[in-house]
Amino acid sequence: MNVCVIGAGYVGLTTAAVLSSLGHRVSCIDQDKKKVTMLQAGRIPIYEPGLQDLIEENKNRLRFSDDLAAGINQAEIIVLAVGTPSLPDGSSNLSFLYKALADAAANIAAYKVILIKSTVPPGTNRAVLNSLREKGYGPDLLDIVSNPEFLREGSALKDMLFPDRMVYGLFEENERVLQLLKQLYAGIDAPELVTNYEGAELIKYASNAFLAAKISFINEISRVCEKYGADITHVARGIGLDNRIGPAFLQAGIGYGGSCFPKDLQSLSYTAKSSGLEPLILDAVQSVNASQLTVYIEKLKSLVPAFPAVKTAVLGIAFKPETDDIRESPAAALIHALNKAGCEVSAFDPKASLPEHLSGVKQTSNPYDAVTGADVVILATDWQEIKNLDWQRVKQLMKGETLLDARNCLVPEVIRAAGLIYEGVGRL
Ligand code: UGA
Questions:
Q1: What's the half-sphere exposure (Cβ side, CA atoms, 13 Å) at 366?
Q2: Residue 293: closest CA among 254, 347, 343
Q3: Which class for 274: exposed (0-12), middle (13-18), buried (19 or more C-beta within 10 A)?
Q4: Distance between CA 158 and CA 331 in Å, rounded?
Q5: Which of 52, 119, 130, 228 has most Cβ atoms within 10 angstroms of its Cβ?
Q6: What is the C-alpha separation between 142 and 180, in angstroms, rounded?
Q7: Mutate to test the pocket of ligand 1, among 51, 159, 215 (most ligand atoms within 8 A of CB)
Q8: Is 260 in the active site?
Q9: Hey, is 274 helix, strand or coil?
Q10: What is the rounded CA–CA span in Å between residue 176 and residue 260?
Q11: pTM value?
């Protein structure tokens, strides 16, 4: 099939690369000319494992351009994957989506199916379709499908090729559209769920909210563990073995971040409040997350009496491993808080760079340089490369001996055997 993907962010690029690998001819369109030039030269603007190679392998079927008209003209399917960031009041900024849709619609001369992958509040797909129908785009010209994505940064290719489910939100029963979707995703084997627009929109929000709730839940329980001498990793394993709960997303730490959970929780809460509801759980999830870092910094203060007159090394800047994304990163927020408190900070990350407002903080290209002379080392992002450090060497290079594992990803006995004092989050 001929497919036009609008938006070359991590969802758009992953979708374009995977669809081309399934045999489709894909044009990936972005209005950012600089980004397009970079992609045309075979370089990708983000770090996502395997993506560069997949794009290279499929370059005969995958092209990048800023020419929307040409992309749309040739396509049977248009995939919309533009960002929907938060506005200051917590609602979603849909202006990029509306602009992309208007531009796309203006170029439609024959029947197309538009898949909206962008995360949008309930009611958006319906409003968009109604408005297009009013402008004369009848069912002979276009149909819209709400087709949320469930990709995680760091494992986006695998998540798209082997998803847990495929969700299609339709305006009404539509066999023609379902047949086209079958063709588009031929080669991907997953349970399919067909629902209305609002159902699909809410499946996406509720999935992210539930995952974030698991994290805030385990973080809150980790605080109780600390008070009563239990180890949160044992508690998490104990509850996760219950099939009804499951083991995933029960790793306590310094909170969730990234471009999705914080924005989606805010947007869903805003949406619920706009209709007169009181989203108690959604708000509690966010408030536990917001205070988790403060709780951790208080812990650091109690462990290191000289605080803030200490040199701290923070290992990890990205919001999670296997990405260079620092949006809403708890690690970056930690570095900011330490810097603001007056600590001397050095930071290391295998892929991510410090944000501009932290240009005063030293970033090293090697983890051992970051820990040299440090009173305290804090592991803030659970990269494999960081977990595998030679902790005896770290101890020799440090001035102090305290290691804070803010992701609960190390084996305390190994760290203690290296002569360091180990402190996790709610761990013994
Ligand atoms: C998330 C969802 O997992 C995807 O399914 C969804 O498609 C995506 O948002 C999106 O809406 O586009 P992502 O933000 O890439 O994916 O990353 P996650 O792996 O979900 O991690 C989010 C945050 O939670 C990270 O900061 C991570 O360190 C933290 N986390 C995760 C924990 O603190 N504990 C855990 O047990 C798991």
A1: 6
A2: 254
A3: exposed
A4: 25
A5: 119
A6: 13
A7: 215
A8: yes
A9: helix
A10: 32
A11: 0.96
